[in-house]
Amino acid sequence: MLVWASFLTFNPRLDDAEFSRIERQRLQRDTGLGGLDLVTDQPIVVAARWHGTFGAVNFADWLLGVFAAPAISFADAIVVPPRYSGTDATKRESYVIAVTGFVLSTGFWVSFGDAVTALRSYTDDVRQPSVWNWLNLVSVAAWLSQPPVPSP
Where are the domains of the chain? Predict the structure, then answer.
């Protein structure tokens, strides 16, 4: 949460002229006048702020990229309509991207801690089996060593 708060605090908002440019670009695409731009390192508009503008804008942007870049990229892919791929998100879409990215990235990092804890407890059990594991192993070995019961 601190990463998202620092991004929202230290990154400047886009002005309305930038969103007007995005709307004009989409209108040209709808009328068939605008071509498809294929840019591989394209910035994403998150909460009316640039993110990943051909590198980090500042430390807060870089930190958000480290902790939430996959979530933001996925949110951008599902929020911006496919016919407008290659264009930036509108102001409304940028806030949806921010909320979706926040939920996905926070959910990942919350579950990441539980996964590490579970993995550590699993590896501890494998390295140092408890008494119950030994008793279970002995009972399975005893059951397997019994002679087969003849069928009537």
Answer: 1-100
